[in-house]
Backbone:
């Protein structure tokens, strides 16, 4: 990195000479330096970037937006390729139930410019895709879209429409890159839905005269597959017949068609299997995830993943007053990365300062909630003296959002001891009837208890703004996924950076730190875990009431996790992995 924070890597200057290419392969270097014309390309089916008009569904999309912003600050030539979905969904509480609302989105209102059209072949038809683009300093977003593209994750996993969306992103997005005049120095595939981008590149190389073996080696050496889930068995499959309709018509090379056809087993294919085959570089999103992810290649060998723990964009997610404090006291640098002596510099963080900064965050939370009623239609406003627990994550089973409500009487006693509030928010995915009914049962249980009815608040339509408001304005964050099922998670990172006390199981990115660096929830069974959760909630209340304990717990969390949560650290880890010195 130079004084301006820009990365420069120059392993080789060209690929035209095959001998040079194989020399690069032997040295395990990529064959192109990053440049505006040959950027780092980042492929994602989901982007959560409301400022740019794209509303995602969860952490994968938030991470994608953070990665682009971090790349921009660090001077990395970076292009993000993603669909622009013409509709976004919102959820509202009405008549005792949760209802989806679908809102059209116009990309022109968010600074995107129409470039031209590309096409993909689908089920015998030629599907035209609009290519739109938004440029920033050294980064850009390229999107493909069309009126019938549908919403994010529309259709069942493994459905024809889902395959169409993924083929459109891969083949259409790759064609869009060529249209704009960009050649990827590296292709980072976020999850298997982006596999077809690498397949399009392989097909282009094999069609344009490169020996098929050389094309495969070249594609593999320049493709990074980043896995965000833990179990391959849970992945949906596509049939050979579906590929005949949506994939094979887009391939020009007979050799590539044969290569892909051979990957089918009993007429079906898991995209992870072929993504593993087409990408030699593979990363997991936390140390634990990289160690335990259970994926196997076509031959049945367990796949190894390089751990590159996710990070967050400090500028986006940390309260400006807190970020200023970190910088002014030499705790982090201007990129959001911890300074070498940041642990010593944390001595400047006192309990009065923590309370002062959290008061600023409380005002932001109140402003956020001004137009966000709870399940009873109440507009909430909290004073600095009010104590707030929160759960703000996707409402899925393994994250256990209902866990604190399993013993309503004990939860009530904990909240009553401090006259505390519990804010619950999280998006229920459309079609997830199990979690939808679990949420309704939870809210029904709360409604039966007079105290809980006034102190437990469900806020619908979880989004970036609400996530930020709770991160900066609450006191304690609860994160209790079943151990072994969370790949990383980033909500807890925002809580740590914003001086919240974290109560968590030892899973995902939290497991990058020691079990003693936060309020850990563990046990031999769910009964012990639940008892530990309630104990930790009681301890968290006591911590906020004692200045010494508040300073100790907050500093302990920051000492352990500031290097983990840094998006600048994440980007550096990726660059060091991709471009070894």
Residues:
């Amino acid at each position: 990195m130079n004084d301006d924070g820009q990365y420069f890597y120059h392993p080789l200057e060209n690929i035209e000479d095959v001998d040079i290419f194989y020399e690069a392969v032997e040295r395990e270097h990529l064959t192109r330096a990053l440049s505006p014309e040959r950027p780092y390309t980042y492929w994602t089916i989901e982007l959560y970037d409301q400022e740019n008009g794209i509303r995602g569904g969860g952490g994968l999309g938030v991470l994608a937006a953070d990665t682009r912003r971090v790349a921009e600050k660090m001077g990395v030539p970076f292009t993000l390729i993603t669909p622009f979905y013409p509709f976004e969904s919102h959820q509202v509480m009405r008549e005792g139930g949760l209802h989806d609302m679908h809102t059209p989105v116009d990309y022109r209102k968010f600074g995107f410019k129409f470039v031209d059209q590309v096409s993909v072949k689908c089920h015998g038809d030629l599907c035209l895709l609009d290519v739109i683009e938004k440029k920033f300093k050294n980064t850009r977003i390229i999107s493909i879209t069309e009126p019938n593209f549908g919403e994010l994750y529309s259709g069942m996993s493994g459905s024809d429409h889902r395959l169409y969306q993924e083929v459109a992103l891969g083949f259409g997005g790759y064609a869009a890159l060529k249209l704009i005049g960009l050649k990827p120095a590296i292709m980072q595939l976020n999850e298997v839905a982006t596999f077809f981008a690498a397949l399009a590149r392989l097909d282009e190389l094999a069609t344009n005269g490169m020996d098929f073996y050389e094309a495969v080696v070249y594609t593999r050496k320049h493709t990074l597959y980043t896995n965000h889930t833990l179990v391959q068995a849970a992945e949906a499959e596509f049939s050979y017949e579906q590929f005949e309709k949506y994939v094979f018509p887009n391939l020009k090379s007979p050799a590539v068609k044969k290569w892909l056809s051979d990957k089918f087993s009993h007429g079906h294919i898991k995209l992870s299997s072929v993504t593993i085959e087409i990408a030699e570089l593979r990363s997991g999103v936390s140390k634990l995830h990289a160690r335990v992810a259970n994926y196997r290649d076509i031959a049945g060998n367990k796949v190894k993943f390089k751990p590159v723990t996710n990070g967050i964009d400090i500028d986006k997610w940390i309260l400006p007053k807190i970020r200023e404090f970190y910088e002014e006291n030499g705790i982090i640098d201007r990129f959001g990365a911890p300074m070498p002596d940041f642990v010593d510099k944390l001595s400047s963080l006192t309990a009065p300062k923590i309370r002062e900064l959290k008061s600023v965050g409380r005002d932001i939370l109140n402003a956020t909630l001004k137009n966000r009623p709870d399940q009873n239609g109440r507009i909430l406003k909290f004073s600095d003296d009010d104590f707030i627990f929160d759960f703000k994550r996707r409402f899925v089973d393994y994250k256990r959002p209902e866990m604190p409500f399993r013993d309503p009487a004990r939860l009530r006693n904990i909240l009553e001891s401090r006259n505390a509030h519990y804010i619950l928010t999280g998006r229920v995915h459309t079609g997830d009837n199990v979690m939808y009914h679990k949420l309704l049962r939870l809210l029904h249980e709360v409604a039966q208890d007079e105290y809980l009815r006034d102190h437990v608040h469900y806020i619908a339509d979880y989004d970036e703004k609400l996530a930020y408001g709770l991160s900066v304005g609450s006191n304690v964050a609860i994160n209790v996924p079943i151990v072994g099922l969370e790949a990383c998670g980033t909500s807890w990172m925002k809580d740590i950076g914003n001086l919240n006390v974290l109560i968590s199981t030892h899973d995902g990115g939290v497991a990058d730190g020691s079990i003693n660096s936060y309020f850990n929830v563990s046990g031999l069974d769910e009964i012990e875990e639940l008892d530990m959760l309630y104990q930790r909630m009681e301890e968290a209340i006591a911590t906020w009431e004692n200045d010494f304990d508040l300073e100790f717990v907050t500093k302990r969390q920051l000492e352990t996790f500031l290097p983990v949560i840094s998006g600048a650290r994440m980007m550096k880890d990726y660059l060091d992995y991709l471009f070894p010195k």
Q: What stands out?
A: Residues 325-565 form a domain with the Rossmann fold fold (CATH 3.40.50.2000). Confidence is low (pLDDT under 50) at residues 1-22, 24-29.
